[in-house]
Structures
1.
Amino acid sequence: MALYNKIYTHISTVNAITTHTSARIYPLLLPQGIAAAFPAVCYSRVSSERVYSLTGYSTLEEARIQIDSWATTYEIVKDLAGDVKTAMDAATAFHSRLESDQDFYNDESETYRVSQDYIIWNRE
């Protein structure tokens, strides 16, 4: 199973996340316009590298995945981002480590975002 599918399958079945987002978990981008509802989560691959050994490709990849949590209040976005971190730490289909996170505010949409970068080891 591709890493994108593994991430979606994992975080979309965590009650602490879906309590906030319902089914609003998207690859790459949030929907534009009135289709965008909050809170929501989106995830994207920043980079990835296949791991090779002396015998060739090991079927392992090391990927950097960005997961963005979005909400209309700072309190909710921080709760959601904490739930995402807890879920990623508990994943069994891949191994992840939070590399960095940042808080943002968008004046135009009046939304808060926590952007988290994870290093993920995945067997393809």
Note: The mean pLDDT is 92.
2.
Amino acid sequence: MDVTFRTASRSDLEAIVELLATDVLGATRERFVMPLPTPYVDAFAAIDADPRNLLVVGEVDGVVVATMQMTFIPNITFVGGERALVEGVRVAASVQRHGVGAALLQWGIDEARRRNCRLVELTTSNQRVDAKRFYERLGFVDSHRGMKLDLCP
């Protein structure tokens, strides 16, 4: 499948939110309605303005079919080595199992290398058993136990 990746533009926001909302877990926390709720627009503007954040889309035949966000974090650990945090990885059901997700993650790994990051990290829900296997196939290692505190219960 011929997929191209690029930095997302404001005109991609609706497609990105739709990808997030049509996911099993995203359906419980996202709101894909038109017009998009203002917090999505504000979040996009903040991400777009911050050189340490990168929102990426993947396109097939001009249609957005994948997305991911990367945040580049300076660290004191690893001798001051920067890390790349991957979040919000989604691939449209219509192109899953065609290599789009692997190509998207490889694009992100290459970008992290280009920026001289020391490591790439991501989290995935314990409910996403298939996603965990997918990330392991790409070389990610289940090395830490993640925790979070929901501030909007």
Note: The beta strands are 4-7, 53-60, 63-73, 83-91, 119-122.
3.
Amino acid sequence: MWFELRPVDLEFLRTAPKVYVAECTIAAPRRAAWDAFTHPSTWRSWWPGVTSASYGSSPEPYGVGTFREARVSGQRYQETIVAWDEERRFAYRIDRATIPIAHAQLECTELYDEAGNGTRIRWTIACTPRLLMRLGAPFFPRIMNRMLLRAMANLEVYLQRQSTEGLDTSASLREVRSA
């Protein structure tokens, strides 16, 4: 069964009833992190619970308006990309989900250069929660932080493996916090 979510745009990051933010720094160049975030076929290698993700039948070049679908922890999601700022910001809204998490939801990942060869990752979830998400609200910031920490540790390992094929990266997660 599908649950339809209300379409939202980037303004929702400022107007949503609930906004959660988690950040961490990875020891990898921003370009490598950007490529991993914008190529959904890599996600199952580093994002916990992802079994598949793709741009479906969306034509290249990918960007704002691109359709995306994913299977995460047994649930399905259909999404639309709402921001694609090369190597800086990647955001999408969830259009439909097989779990009743929210009436509207937008996720935004921002990438910033850190000293040396690092990248600061800022992950924001803006939503109008449904009952399921409201019940978990007291625990959600900690869950989100742990999820980002695990995903970024996995991403560093993934990028390290890729470096043997030509990318210049190293693995060392330094920090995770909630804003």
Note: Residues 167-179 have pLDDT under 50 and may be disordered.
4.
Amino acid sequence: MASHTGSEGLVKIGANTVSEVTSWSLDETGETIETTSMGDSARSYTTGLVSWSASVEVLWDETDTNGQVAMSVGSSVSLNLHPEGATSGDTIYSGTGIVTSHSKTASFDGNVTASISLQGTGGLTASTV
């Protein structure tokens, strides 16, 4: 069984690696549609539409114009999430995401960080590099 550490991962917008990523998450969901009718003794369902969303946490870097800055609210980006690196054979999740929020946080005794949320539009593809 293969296991991986988070330090192997990275995030790309198109072919550009996003700088200073500290974590990312990917959520995939699927709807169910009820198909139960009168006379049935148990509820039944069928598969509905699927969707996905992602978030990226970074140490804020205003000079990362092709990564962090490119993920401005309202923009549509080609998102590539790499959980185990970007060498041949590694897994990659790809899709088009719309940036729904980009927030920054600062404290007197810590780094300035940013949290970026994206809503997937269309399908998400899992493949290998």
Note: The two ends are 20 Å apart (CA to CA).
